[in-house]
Amino acid sequence: MPGRLPPPGASACPRLSPRPEYGPAWHYLMRAAVRLLRFPLLCTVFHILTERGYAKAYVRFASLMPHTPFRMWWAQPDDLFFTIGLSLSISVVWLLENGFFMLCDRYSLLQQYKLRRVPSMQPSASLVRTTLLNSALSHLIIGPALMLLVVGPALRHLALARALPSPVLPETLPSWTTTWLNFTVAFFINEVIFYFGHRLLHWKPLYRTIHKQHHSYVGTRSFAAEYAHPVEDVLTAYIPFLLGIVLMNAHFHFVFCWFFCKLTETYESHSGYCFAGSWLHWFGLTNSSIAAHHDFHHTRNQGNFGWEILDYLCGTMDEWVRLGGRDGYISQLRAKAGDK
Q1: pLDDT tens, 33-43?
Q2: pTM of the predicted model, to two decimals?
């Protein structure tokens, strides 16, 4: 018989009684090590492949700026370049990835990898419209304003204060080893802060007033990743995404690549698709385990607050372990949906 759990959602410590056996620590440590190596490595490769494009874009931008009447007391032309570049990075990955998953849903493509849904898990049309409108507002107005007036100037002024090279010039791009190390640090900081920030939001008072908005999606869609209360955005998006960047005084190109790659993972983890067993999975080019792990968090709303190793260390994935992890969860979804 399964143990008893607290009510879904409003619990930062959702533990069964009796508790299941989590299994050997090395199993989780190995998976954590693979992810800690894999993600920064993929980001570094992407960074290297796009360096030439960044350099060309900056040279072109610099040649146009003398003819552009852009002058502000706080923001400078380099901050405008940062805003345009980061906005494009975010918008491109949003359109590509969300467009891909929307096409899969619309035309029933790759349904063998779809995490099955029962009717009660489907979002309403009004919720989808609200989410897309919020995304447009964030991507077109709020985000660019923060980039232009806060993030870009902060990175530039921090570099000056620390007597470090300019974070915008192509000739100050770091070596691949420094880039890989920076991605590793940024990834680690992001995962740790996200886990504890997300778990805090499942404390009953904060869940009801803040985090419940994000859990309006029971069966998630990729574009639902950004549907959240502003306080949640600060705790689980802005601070985790930006803290590592600020601490390392990251180059602008690093920031563009970091957001592009991390959002790719974020959208996939909310997509409702798990590509385990596909050739993409075997080549390490998809986030299958993360997608199932976070999908469980939405459909069952019992634990699985973030990076699996932290859920293991803090004991916050009892129900996930009882079900048998990724494979057990997928099997249960198929059974509930009536799949043969």
Answers
A1: 999 999 999 99
A2: 0.93
